[in-house]
Amino acid sequence: MSFVRNAWYVAGWSQDFAEALVPLTMLSQPLVMFRASDGRVVALEDRCPHRLLPLSKGRRIGDTIQCGYHGMTFGTDGRCVRVPGQDNLPASAYVDAFPVHEAHGIVWVWMGDPALADRSKVFDMPEFSDPAWHLHLGDKLHIRANYLNVAENLVDPAHVSFVHPTTLGNAASENVPVHVRTSGEAILAWRWIRDAEPVGFFRQFGGFAGNVDRWHYYHLHLPSTAVIDFGSVDAGLNCAEDERDRGVRIFALHFVTPVTEGYTIDHWMHLRNTAIGDEAASEQMDAMFRVAFAEDKEVLEAIHEEERRPQRRKPIRIAIDKGPNVYRKRIRDLIAAEATEDLGAAEKPVYVYHD
């Protein structure tokens, strides 16, 4: 399985979890989630250890889940608290409990070793808590494709001109060079399109009539969180690259969660420095984003289908693939590191290396 497990993944928005049992799958692991009486969101393995019936097909009793087959009951920590018909509780009668973190209306689940779950590593941005920015939770895009292809799409400014010609791009950017930086924690690809016609998105939300300077900065944080900083400013202002707040600036955030090898959910939202508190503007932006993201979905699902067919020759790679190539390598390295246990240097080494 090509999943990085020691990481935080988005399960959904806070509003998705209440008293009802919610079954979902992340990294091919079935989970059952609910909000406990103390307000915490709980994530448990969705499989009774007795006859393997999903616990989500049982019922909630207080802060416990009763299996719908023989009534074994499990608490929020995964431990069995009742076996009908017997007093003893076998040590093996438990389900895995997964660490959960909730902030800014987003619910994250740690899918790896619970001992390594570090809440300080949950993705965050200063703009989440800045009153000068409007935070709006969007929607979930269900894509029948591998998550690596979805994430690669989100560090690729070059596709915008061709896949989104009426919403997020136009022909003016087709031959503008893309800059890539891979030395930081996040892979970054960016470019500016100077003195060009505004794209459809900023015609509607920026009110630009004349030419603009516009930008795209794609930040891909491993394993699969993408932040796309894009916007426009009147070309006459000659805006410097570090003065993007002078224009209409949007952060489109994509929390890409692998469901299975061939199925991905892209939880998307945005932050903006315009139309603060205007929910009508949020709905209008959502509508345009849905059009653009449906265009991505069509492309990515078609690619996935072709990848599953026999191929007579190897796919080629071109200059714009630098960011995706580095991303794939980093993912492979993380998966390889999780697959082994490093015991450290031996006190009395048998092998002495000289290279």
Automatic annotation (TrEMBL):
GO terms for biological process: methylation. One of its GO terms (molecular function) is 2 iron, 2 sulfur cluster binding. InterPro entries: Cholesterol_7-desaturase, Rieske_2Fe-2S, Rieske_2Fe-2S_sf, VanA_C_cat. It holds the Pfam family Rieske. The keyword Hydrolase does not apply. It comes from the Bacteria. The keyword Transferase applies. Keywords: 2Fe-2S, Iron, Iron-sulfur, Metal-binding, Methyltransferase, Oxidoreductase, Transferase. Residues 8-109 form the Rieske domain. This is Vanillate O-demethylase oxygenase. The lineage of its organism: Bacteria, Pseudomonadati, Pseudomonadota, Alphaproteobacteria, Rhodobacterales. SUPFAM superfamilies: Bet v1-like, ISP domain.
